[in-house]
TrEMBL record:
It comes from Rotaria magnacalcarata. One of its GO terms (biological process) is regulation of transcription by RNA polymerase II. Residues 26-97 form the Mediator of RNA polymerase II transcription subunit 14 RM2 domain. Signal peptide: none annotated. It comes from the Eukaryota. GO terms for molecular function: transcription coregulator activity. This is Mediator of RNA polymerase II transcription subunit 14.
Length: 258
């Protein structure tokens, strides 16, 4: 029992060092430490506080509300137990508990495995959310880790959308090799307003389709526009009637658009 209590103290000391290592660890919070008994750690504080104004964030922080974290307990038999809030699936909890049963382990190992498991669960939930409203080929890449979204049939690697999660803050990061405007909208929706997520994804899909049209119609004698051109000599483009349109002008029928 004394040895386990000492190991719990070492874990607490390691957690403090991780917390003070760099500014990236500001989202890690040591909420409770009872010598010989328990150690509680919260993580992803910025992710937890999204959607609240500054005054609400301050109140929540002062109240030390626990949203996402772990508690390591040293029971009367001198054995470690670990609980997660919110709970993780059994297979993840067992895998993390196995770390505590090794002869040697570190707090960094526990946190890394815990956050990895939490990311996987969030990827699965996000995958279900996207597939519930739009057709897509979505897979979880466990090596990055990231959610790879192919929103169009036969998507190329450049057309794929990659959604990752910062292990420090828990915030989503969206990457596209082809553009940044719509991927930034999707990232904002994921982190700030998920009610607009599907609209942001659909706009990105429409943009991808617009990029495919020129090559698909290259064999036709036509001009392709995403905005109706004006009639001035410079043939400048005016403001679009809609943001999700493709206009095809046949060469032999100028001024007529499909």
């Amino acid at each position: 029992y004394y040895c386990q209590s000492l190991r719990l103290h070492i874990l607490h000391d390691q957690a403090c060092r991780i917390r003070n290592r760099s500014s990236k660890q500001k989202h890690l919070y040591l909420s409770s430490y009872i010598p010989c008994k328990s150690l509680s750690i919260e993580y992803w504080k910025e992710h937890n506080l999204n959607g609240f104004n500054n005054q609400q964030k301050k109140a929540i922080t002062n109240e030390k509300t626990r949203d996402i974290g772990i508690t390591i307990l040293c029971d009367d038999d001198g054995k470690f137990q670990i609980s997660h809030w919110p709970p993780l699936p059994i297979e993840d909890s067992v895998a993390i508990l196995d770390i505590l049963e090794r002869p040697t382990f570190t707090m960094e190992e526990i946190l890394s495995r815990t956050i990895y498991a939490r990311c996987q669960r969030r990827f699965e939930e996000l995958k279900e959310t996207i597939l519930s409203t739009t057709s897509a080929n979505i897979e979880i890449d466990p090596l990055i880790p990231a959610l790879k979204c192919e929103l169009l049939p036969d998507s190329t690697s450049e057309e794929a959308l990659f959604i990752s999660i910062s292990p420090f803050s828990g915030l989503y990061k969206v990457t596209s090799y082809m553009e940044t405007r719509y991927s930034q909208q999707i990232e904002y929706a994921l982190n700030r307003d998920q009610g607009t997520l599907i609209d942001a994804i659909n706009l990105f899909k429409i943009w991808l389709i617009q990029q495919r049209i020129p090559s698909l119609l290259a064999h036709l004698n036509c001009h392709i526009y995403t905005r109706i051109p004006s009639l001035n000599p410079k043939h400048e483009l005016i403001s679009p009637f809609v943001n999700n349109g493709i206009y095809i002008e046949l060469i032999h029928h100028e001024g007529y658009y499909i």
